[in-house]
Design brief:
The structure is a single chain. With about 350 residues, the chain is of the alpha/beta class. It folds into 2 domains: about 1-290, HypD, alpha/beta domain 2 (Rossmann fold, 3-Layer(aba) Sandwich), CATH 3.40.50.11740; about 300-340, no CATH class. The chain is about 35% helix and about 20% strand. A hairpin with a 3-residue loop joins strand 10 (about 250-260) and strand 11 (about 265-270). Helix 2 (about 25-30) runs parallel beside helix 14 (about 335-340) and helix 7 crosses helix 12 (about 240-250). The structure holds iron/sulfur cluster (SF4). Iron/sulfur cluster binds near residues 301, 314, 328 and 335. Iron/sulfur cluster (SF4) binds near residues 318 and 327.
């Protein structure tokens, strides 16, 4: 490890830009002070890996509308409650009488529905492949148990199309720190077509500081090579979790999806289908993205076009206590992590 640390600190070869596309990696990079361990020639860029951050305002607006309907309650994780919609957040709606309840797991949401049969319980289902697999098993349980008042408002995304979008539209990325959690479900092989299409390496990484340093070291060494490497073999297999993949296929089918900052990306989302479509709370057509604060640059931050510190509101108007955009709300958001760690001050 000493050799790797020395290499990364003193590297003076061609500049390398690496992107992480996982909110947990973004948080781990901040927590472990990884950026300060790197030579100025190695730049880390946060990509669209935070599920809350990539969710468009139309989705928040729909949740707000639902929670204000009679006999309906919106169940959600806490960070989504603070994300500004085009006019208000779920927290604001709650203050105006909306029925919003924070849950700690999707299973909590299902149990709540089971105990409140006279209420339509809408769970805010955002996330990538990892959480889609959890939602699939939850829906199969709801189906088996005959729970009829449980719904999902989905904003589910899949990773390969957005990586393709970033490479095609943003460019200048020399390699990807491939997401650890997503890869558990999908397997590491899903990155091979992208590696070949753009002649760049992908390295699947764990979340410890040393694992991230090993990943960055591998990516620098593999620069320009269309390789996929799995440095998280304790949980990630080449084929992924095939049982979870089958459960996802039973419940969801691919669909076009809107991403904050990127617009509509074909086949980048998942929607309920078949018998499971009856659990849908009205997730189609949530495509618009009107920023609450027009000076917020979340859209460019999410694609790596600008660093959070280049946003004029960063740290002044926009802080974790006064977020103006989703990227400052979520603990996996780029702006939040840059703010709490001083990452942008390198
Ligand atoms: Fe938006 Fe705040 Fe990030 Fe600026 S610092 S891009 S306002 S979330």
């Amino acid at each position: 490890m000493t050799e790797i640390r020395d290499f990364l600190k003193t590297y003076d070869g061609p500049s390398v830009r690496l992107m992480e596309v996982c909110g947990t990696h973004t948080a781990a990079i901040s927590k472990n002070g990884i950026v300060r361990m790197l030579s100025p020639s190695i730049r880390l860029i946060s990509g669209p890996g935070c599920p809350v951050c990539v969710t468009v305002t139309a989705y928040i607006d729909r949740l707000v509308k639902l929670c204000l309907q009679p006999d309906t309650v919106v169940l959600t994780f806490g960070d989504l409650m603070r994300v500004p919609g085009s006019a208000m957040s779920l927290n604001d709606a709650k203050a105006e009488g909306g029925r919003v309840r924070m849950v700690y797991s999707p299973l909590d949401a299902l149990r709540f529905a089971e105990e409140h049969t006279g209420t339509t319980c809408v769970f805010a289902a955002v996330g990538f492949e990892t959480t889609a697999a959890v939602y699939a098993s939850l829906l199969e349980e709801a189906d088996r148990s005959g729970i009829r008042n449980f719904r999902l408002l989905t904003s589910l995304k899949v990773m390969p199309p957005v990586i393709d979008w970033v490479c095609a539209n943003q460019g200048g990325i020399d390699g990807f720190i491939a997401p650890g959690h997503v890869s558990v479900i999908t397997g590491s092989k899903i990155y091979q077509p992208l590696a070949e299409k753009y002649s760049i390496p992908f390295v699947v990484s764990g979340f410890e500081g040393e694992q991230l340093l090993e990943t960055i070291y591998a990516l620098v060494k593999l620069r320009g090579k269309p390789r996929v490497m799995n440095l998280y073999p304790s949980v990630v297999r080449e084929e992924g979790n095939e049982e979870a993949q089958r459960a996802m296929s039973r419940c969801f089918e691919p669909c076009d999806a809107a991403w904050r900052g990127m617009g509509i990306i074909p086949a980048s989302g998942l929607r309920l289908h078949g018998d499971f479509a009856r659990f849908d709370a009205g997730s189609d057509g949530l495509l618009e993205d009107h920023s609450f604060n027009t000076n917020c640059r979340c859209a460019e931050v999410l694609t790596g076009a600008v660093s959070p510190t280049e946003c004029p509101l960063f740290g002044r108007v926009c802080t974790p206590q006064t977020p103006q955009g989703a990227c400052m709300v979520s603990q996996e958001g780029s702006c939040y992590n840059y703010y709490i760690s001083g990452r942008g001050s390198k």
